[in-house]
Design a protein that fits this description.
Blueprint: E1 11-19, E2 29-37, E3 40-42, E4 49-51, E5 56-59, E6 61-66, H1 84-98, H2 101-118, E7 120-128, H3 133-147, E8 153-159, H4 170-181, E9 185-189, H5 195-209, E10 213-217, H6 227-238, E11 244-248, H7 257-270, E12 273-276, H8 278-284, H9 301-306, E13 311-313, H10 330-341, H11 356-362, E14 377-380, H12 385-390, E15 397-400, E16 403-404
Parallel strand pairs: 1-4, 6-7, 7-8, 9-10, 10-11, 11-12, 12-13
Antiparallel strand pairs: 1-2, 2-3, 5-14, 14-15, 15-16
């Protein structure tokens, strides 16, 4: 059998390997047979059997922190120096000049076609929401979500600076827009003098509308950036009981150990979900001209897991000033996170940080290899972790609803007409 082509119809895929934790077993990899029939996984073997020769299989992935509205603007808006400040100013200029509904829609759909080809089944995206961009981007998002229904489940979180959060300002309208869209309330948190009341107002507005929360937190290698602690305290003090996700948390990597442990204990008590974005963080953090970076900004995922904090990994930005690379490929994210955060030689269930844990954090349908589940699978020819992470797995098989999909990626030239388009 050509590895890249599976027969249509009911088939049993014999002799697969999967992370044991995904099927409720202990250890590293487990052998498994999967039968595809009528779009689902079946416990009744099919007449046609294919020996998969130890190929690794995963449920389709969940990417819980992306920026589909920013994606693929690098050609017209490259970061001038690779810094965080350079990214902020460049995106702001590009947004003002180009982010019409058609521009955002075209780039968003392009990014989703990439994610689809790579084997992602659910995505949460943050949308820059300074008015009037909130109306434009959330309108496009709703249309795109409808277009992609049944292929990729989509959620949207608004993205505003914490100093713009106010119950009597424009943010109230944005929060209403998020609620109407069935989205998630989001903000970027960093030290400001009135952080505490801003956080209280943020959670009050989320609570009034029954919204989950998702915040960008302490995205800097500055030990004085300690808003994560205040977020956890505010959740505990207010009794906010909807899911809360915090992303980045880079400054933990440079803070005093006692302070870090105190913060993590608060995060665990508050029940916050954490999403780490190591590829983007390592691209931006501690970048200085003609100087090798010393501080990498990767948050403390091992210490978090040791305290029972749920940790996920995600793509973050894609080909925009915050990250010049990426393609919404969760196998790439898993490979790089394993190398960067030393997930190898560690616990055997880190794969859940790319599948079931982000699905639970976001409320997406749970990825599963159990009989009766929808047959949404990613199969790689690699027979173990070393083979999986040694190559990009460009010949992987992606199965959605029991059928193998065409994995042809969209060509970047499709976006050429946007790269000089005036608003």
């Amino acid at each position: 059998m050509d590895f890249c082509v599976l027969p249509s119809g009911a088939v049993t895929l014999r002799n697969l390997a999967t992370p044991a934790c995904l099927i409720g077993q202990d250890g590293d990899l487990a052998r498994i047979d999967l039968t595809l029939a009528d779009g689902r996984l079946s416990d009744t073997p099919a007449a046609r059997v294919i020996d998969m020769q130890g190929a690794m299989v995963f449920p389709a992935f969940v990417d819980m922190h992306t920026h589909l509205d920013k994606g693929h603007i690098w050609t017209r808006a490259p970061n001038p120096d690779g810094t965080f400040a350079g990214a902020l100013s460049t995106v702001e200029s590009d947004r003002m000049a180009h982010w019409s509904a058609e521009d955002v829609r075209t780039r968003m759909d392009f990014a989703l076609r990439c994610a689809w080809a790579h084997g992602t089944r659910a995505i949460r995206t943050h949308l820059d929401s300074r008015p009037p961009q909130d109306e434009i981007s959330f309108g496009v998002f709703r249309e795109t979500r409808a277009d992609w229904a049944g292929r990729i489940d989509l959620q949207a979180a608004c993205l505003v600076s914490i100093e713009n959060v106010s119950t009597d300002g424009a943010f109230r309208g944005t929060a209403d827009l998020v609620a109407e869209t069935g989205g998630v309330l989001g903000a970027v948190s960093y030290p400001i003098p009135d952080l505490k009341p801003r956080l209280r107002e943020f959670f009050d507005m989320a609570g009034e509308r029954g919204l989950a929360a998702d915040l960008h937190v302490d995205e800097a290698v500055d030990p004085s950036a300690a808003t994560l602690r205040e977020i956890a305290r505010t959740v505990l003090e207010t009794g906010f009981d909807a899911p809360v996700t915090v992303g980045h948390c880079c400054s933990l990597s440079v803070q005093d150990e006692a302070e870090v442990l105190q913060t993590l204990d608060l995060v665990a008590r508050a029940g916050l979900d954490v999403v780490s974005l190591p590829m983007c963080n390592m691209y931006l953090q501690d970048r200085q001209p003609e100087r090798t970076p010393r501080l990498r900004g990767v948050t403390l995922v091992h210490e978090m897991r040791a305290r029972g904090i749920k940790v996920s990994f995600a793509s973050d930005n894609t080909r925009d000033p915050f990250y010049a690379y990426g393609d919404l490929d969760m196998i790439e994210v898993m490979r790089e996170a394993t190398r960067i955060a030393h997930l190898d030689h560690s616990r055997a269930d880190w794969v859940t940080a790319f599948t079931t844990t982000p699905a639970e954090a976001c409320g997406f349908a749970m990825p599963s290899l159990a009989p009766g589940s929808q047959a949404d699978l990613v199969i790689c020819k690699a027979r173990g972790w070393s083979e999986l992470f040694a190559r990009p797995q460009s010949d992987r098989i992606v199965i959605r609803g029991g059928a193998q999909i065409d994995r042809a990626l969209p060509d970047f030239s499709e976006l050429d007409h946007l790269m000089s388009l005036p608003r």
